DNA sequence: CAACTGTTTTTTATTTATAAAATTCACTCA
DNA sequence: TGAGTGAATTTTATAAATAAAAAACAGTTG
């Protein structure tokens, strides 16, 4: 069998939707090229879609003029509901779920074929995902042998946090050197207020913390971008997200504490108290590290 | 067509070589299992190899006892000379050579198929290599579209050096906190002498510097290992190696300067002069950064 | 000549097939 | 019981095939 023409079908639907909202019968449609760029596909696909519309008697081509003959009806659309997600996504979701449900534990071995079957994809898709995923440093593979979950030991956490410490301290120091009139101070202030608000309704909305956490780090990154630091932060986020799933029982307390620590850090930052902010961040990182060790290490 | 039995053929040759050096006619050979572990292949392959030796009348199996009938001769060996290297390696070498020869420049696009043909491998091998390689941050790809060399601009160098600065300063500081009697001080001293020696014959042996450079960083890493920092150093090394190829004219001066700077740093370290070592390292990193910018940016 | 179209060529994504090699299973014998 | 064997099963590595989609090419027209 060969690949499905999802790009084509999706384009037809998008086109119909677009026509329904912006055109009326008798209008001329834009050129192939502009449609292609507008919907981010190649011209080949656009042409195939237009041909399809012609065969539905919705469009007529005359001398390279595309005339809209009639408005599209519901039955003209492709049923796109059973297009499965991109393979890549399927594999990822399945693999992550295996990890989070504890079916794959540190030290375990697993095969590509097995994953491919379970996630209803091909070994190629699986393998490519695993290669990409291996940058997180959680899996490894020897040639002609299966993949293996690396041991998630204390040394790993220590090394992760060593780097995180370096990076976050660096980001903090950079932020504090921003000029007084930088817009980022405004943003930081807004974030401070958001934290305050969340802290008041923590007992119900504690699941909202990760969003703020992400926003905070995003702000520091935006103020002084660095692709390498940013990439590393992905790893941190993943490892966190990944292991905290194992023990959701203490999530509320953890988040409550973290919010307070964030408020402390941001408060010191807003007061330009470099030393205080550093100490507060130090404390925050340390809490996080201990908490990770407690829940994650077997 | 399907895959070649290289593992098998190589095992046969290794086995013959081993027998030639360690056994004599009439000896019993070790069990399948021990051979398999010794030569790091599966038992299946061992059995196939032994069967092959039987068919050559070199070995006879009786009741699971493997007896050596005769010593192997030259003609028993497989001709392994035309086994091409592993696909992975082929792709890598080809791709790197494209980059180093300047045929692939920042901003260029290239296709998987093209690379596969040129390097005499498959698109799968190419794609897997490219995915792995993309962690260096030098290439990128959109779905359904070709790969593209990222722009190697000043921001990239700055970001690279920002992280390098953080890491190297951190490593230095850790090293200086080693106890007086740590063996690493001895190693550092030996390295100091090596540097001194090289500096005397720099005009002829300047190409030997990268080895020392690598050794220096290796020593710092060994004293305080961190997989994330280590991995990042791979990126640094590669980017360096990669871009310096573009301008070999000044290599001698660059290396001569770098050796002096290393001597300076190590000297200060051995004297436990923290402040001096930091300054010296700072200077070294700065030289390297400027030099990279000068040769690499278009 | 620049934007467009029709046509042709390449390239990517995905599936299938197959031998090599690894792994598992069931059994044997010291 | 535990290391070892023979046979069966699974998995990996690799090639090949094909349709979808992208990109390149060659004209055409305002």
TrEMBL record, chains A, B:
This protein's UniProt keywords: DNA-binding, Transcription, Transcription regulation
Pfam families in UniProt: FCD, GntR
Residue span(s) of domain HTH gntR-type: 5-72, 85-152
Record bears the keyword Transcription: yes
Membrane-spanning segments: none
Gene Ontology MF term list: DNA binding; DNA-binding transcription factor activity
Classification via PANTHER family: HTH-TYPE TRANSCRIPTIONAL REGULATOR LGOR-RELATED, TRANSCRIPTIONAL REGULATOR, GNTR FAMILY
Name of the protein in its database record: GntR family transcriptional regulator
